[in-house]
Amino acid sequence: MTQIGLFCATGLSSALLVKALKEQLADDQHYQVNSAPFSEIFMVGNDYDFLILAPQTSFNQAKVAAAFPDKKIVLLTDEEFLSKNVARIVEEIKI
């Protein structure tokens, strides 16, 4: 099963985005989607195949990439995050 972690500043604002992503992937049981506060990414990042970063965590993207060189990291734009547009996320994980 492919594990997807969505990380935002507190883990709360991403709950609606996680819901939208789960709905988009509902027909495919090969994905597990979870959200967490960014403060936990260095403790739990290895548990995920994909690390999705909310825009407010973008200043840490280089640190995340250095800590998890074997992980696919997707940085969301403000528009994607605010509109809950998960199309690019789905495209990235299904490649």
Automatic annotation (TrEMBL):
The protein's matches in Pfam families, at most eight in alphabetical order, are given as:
PTS_IIB (PF02302)
Record flagged with keyword Repeat: no
Outline the extent of the Phosphotransferase system EIIB component type 2/3 domain.
4-88
**Top-level taxon of the source organism:** Bacteria
Annotated keywords: Transferase
Protein's UniProt keywords contain Transferase: yes
Q: Which Gene3D superfamilies match?
A: 3.40.50.2300
Protein name per UniProt = Phosphotransferase system EIIB component type 2/3 domain-containing protein
Q: Which organism is it from?
A: Enterococcus innesii
